[in-house]
Automatic annotation (TrEMBL):
InterPro entries hit by this protein: Integrase_cat-core, RNaseH-like_sf, RNaseH_sf
Domain Integrase catalytic: 164-348
Protein name: Transposase
A GO BP entry: DNA integration
Coiled-coil ranges per UniProt: none
UniProt GO molecular function: nucleic acid binding
PANTHER family: INTEGRASE PROTEIN (PTHR35004:SF7), TRANSPOSASE RV3428C-RELATED (PTHR35004)
């Protein structure tokens, strides 16, 4: 706001010549005349004074800045999870280490902390970088966690479980485990691009690779295979069978740095919020201690919550569409890649064993006979989800069937007035809310006016079966068996035969049929030449 210089000069003279104790009143009168504040008036009366005004004093002892920096470097030596060393202890360590002089001990601790605040050294939250996949199913995030409020109370003969609510103690996460130390675990998968979530409960003693693979097989059969799977350093990554399955499915499993939780933020925080939002309403049921629900019913209601509520929330950036609609854009990229039906049947544990001279294999306390192999080191493949067992010669790569070995026969507290919070808690017990009022007991009705576009399938991915003994381990082995029958073949035709064998998947039957056919042709030609 600008004023007439003549008016400002008149105001300056009157304020300066005002009697003692009347300067403020005179300035207020002029501020009212000019329709402005006294602060603005003073800034215009004395512009030179205000322009030279120093808002922050210079440090009288610049060395404090250097000492404080070293002290705070020591404070931040522990890992993030361990917290920081106290400023007082950090000063003593710095002095004892000779990094700062002994005079630094006499500086008040508050001075170091003030300098740190002014320089931003106390701000622990660092800037984060957000990444997002370019398309649906480019990357999935996987995580598992125990239920916060439920525990397994009973096992049924049909494999189902009965769950009850458990009131958690503050800062104490353990719950009763009356049934074989089993706990309800929640496995979840989030699409990086859309934020679509899919999850379910399982009963297990802890996070393990078998449950992880079983969940992923179920989830990927619904939403398709990703190009990448992002997971923490849990059993999914540590177990060889699960890593092998993911690799054979053609899915990348990038190595994530340990203790770097920011890389999993898209599953860690929203995932925990999602399932706790689902579980908390169960506490509204009357007589919470007697509330019971089966694991299958809990999974059904969880599916309703995920489909009818969570996945219908707006997308992170494209707020005009839902997460499910964002995931449906996969049709623009050719559709989903389906999960092979026999994928879990091919999951195997592998260990090294020695086959004896009589073809005997000792494995897990049982004796087996390896048909067609003896005196050799082998890899033993045992099915994780199916009762299957085969061995592979470590030297040749050939696979052999096994069977059971059978040797030959020989020739109380003082009460206080209840707070409003406690009164509400007490009143809530009289609400008598039934099970039927649960939010996700029934699936939300579908809008018949909206026709959902079907999700297309781009390809059916095949997966190699380690239990398959009908194929050769390599093209060289296949050609060796082929040449035993054909005996001789010119180099040009050998290359043609190699291509045919590879195109037919190194199948033993195909190699034999092709070899017999070519040998028959050669013998016919030789007979014709001899007869001519």
């Amino acid at each position: 706001m600008s004023f007439d210089p003549a008016v400002i000069a008149q105001a300056r003279i009157e304020i300066a010549n005002a009697p003692h104790g009347m300067k403020t009143e005179t300035a207020g009168k002029w501020a009212k005349i000019l329709n402005t504040t006294m602060q603005t008036l003073y800034r215009n009366i004395n512009p030179d004074v205000n322009s030279k005004r120093t808002r922050k004093g210079q440090p009288q002892k610049p060395e404090y800045q250097k000492w404080a920096r070293i002290v705070y470097q020591i404070k931040k030596c522990p890992p993030e999870e361990a917290g920081e060393i106290s400023t007082e202890d950090a000063v003593l360590i710095a002095v004892k280490s000779g990094l700062i002089p002994e005079a630094a001990i006499d500086v008040p601790i508050g001075t170091y902390n003030r300098i740190a605040r002014e320089n931003g050294w106390s701000k622990k939250e660092v800037r984060a970088n957000r990444f997002q996949a370019e398309r649906p199913n480019q990357a999935h995030h996987f995580d598992a966690s125990t239920s916060k409020f439920f525990y397994i109370a009973k096992r049924f003969c049909d494999g189902d479980y009965l769950l009850k609510l458990h009131r958690p103690a503050k800062h104490y996460k353990n719950k009763p485990v009356p049934v074989d130390a089993l706990r309800p675990w929640i496995y979840g998968l989030t699409d990086d691009y859309s934020g679509r979530l899919i999850c379910r409960y399982v009963a297990a003693q802890g996070e393990n690779s078998v449950d992880s693979m079983s969940f992923l097989s179920w989830a990927w059969s619904i939403i398709g295979l990703p190009e990448q799977l992002l997971a923490d350093q849990g059993m999914l990554k540590k177990a060889l069978p699960s890593r092998d399955l993911i690799e054979r499915l053609g899915i990348e499993l990038p190595e994530m740095m340990p203790y770097q939780k920011r890389g999993h933020g898209k599953i860690e925080r929203p995932w925990r919020t999602a399932w706790q939002k689902f579980e908390k309403p169960f506490w509204a049921v009357a007589d919470q201690e007697k509330f019971e629900i089966t694991l299958s019913e809990l999974n059904k209601q969880l599916l309703h919550f995920i489909e009818d509520k969570y996945n219908k929330l707006p997308h992170r950036f494209e707020r005009h569409i839902t997460r499910m609609q964002a995931w449906s854009k996969i049709n623009l990229h050719g559709g989903i890649v389906t999960m092979p039906e026999n994928a879990l049947a091919t999951v195997a544990r592998r260990c090294k064993r020695k086959v004896s001279v009589e073809g005997k294999l000792e494995y897990n306390g049982k004796s087996y006979e390896v048909k067609g192999l003896h005196s050799a080191w082998v890899w033993v493949f045992e099915g994780v989800f199916e009762d299957r067992l085969i061995v592979q010669d470590c030297k040749t790569g050939m696979k052999y069937e096994v069977r059971d070995f059978e040797p030959l026969n020989l020739g109380e507290y003082k009460s206080h007035k209840q707070t409003p919070h406690q009164e509400l808690v007490k009143e809530s017990a009289n609400l008598n809310i039934s099970k039927d009022a649960m939010l996700y007991a029934d699936k939300a009705p579908r809008d018949e006016k909206i026709v959902a576009m079907p999700i297309r399938t781009k390809e059916d991915r095949e997966i190699a079966d380690p239990f398959d003994v009908t194929t050769y381990a390599s093209i060289d082995e296949a050609m060796g068996e082929f040449m035993k029958i054909v005996l001789s073949l010119d180099p040009e035709n050998k290359e043609v035969v190699k291509r045919l064998i590879l195109q037919n998947g190194l199948k033993k039957q195909y190699v034999m049929d092709l070899a017999l056919e070519i040998r028959a042709i050669k013998e016919t030609k030789n007979a014709a030449v001899a007869g001519g």
